[in-house]
Amino acid sequence: MTFSVIGFDPQTNELGVAVASKFLCVGAVVPYAKAGVGAIATQSWANLEYGNHGLDMLEKGVTPEQVIKELTKNDNSSTYRQVGIVDARGQSATFTGEDCYNWAGGYAGENFAVQGNIQ
Question: Closest Cα partner for 58 from 29, 27, 24, 34?
Fold first, then answer.
């Protein structure tokens, strides 16, 4: 199982990502963040390209929802993945592929995105 949360504080303009998992060294795989740009959590058969590529798109002004569409559209394994994104304006989006674990889902709102799955 893996759970992640991404948050943006509009008063301080700070972003953060937290992740908890049964997998060791998950902090080297799931969280990506860039000051003034946004933060991303990629999990559930994580695609490591989602992190840096997603941050590059955010930096160019692409919305989190559109970033997810771009990341997943040519990924043949996107049905097994989860990703959450919050940009430096507090816009957010989350995605859970239909073939994720027994229970998997996410929720996004202004200034946050959360994702989780249980095997």
Answer: 34
Supply φ then ψ for residue 42, to 5 degrees.
-115, 125
Residues constituting the chain: 119
Average pLDDT (24-44) is 95
Yes or no: say if 87 and 94 are a contact pair by the CB < 8 Å rule: no
- The overall pTM is greater than 0.90: yes
CATH class of the 2-118 domain in this structure? alpha beta
Is residue 17 within 8 A of residue 55, CB to CB? The reply is no
Residues 6 or more apart in contact with residue 81 via CB below 8 angstroms? 42, 43, 44, 45, 46, 47, 50, 72, 75, 95, 97, 100
Question: Rounded to an integer, what distance in angstroms lies between the CA atom of residue 104 and that of residue 11?
Answer: 31
Cα 63 off chain centre by: 13
The domain segmentation of the chain, as residue ranges, is: 2-118
Predicted confidence at residue 24, as pLDDT, reads: 85
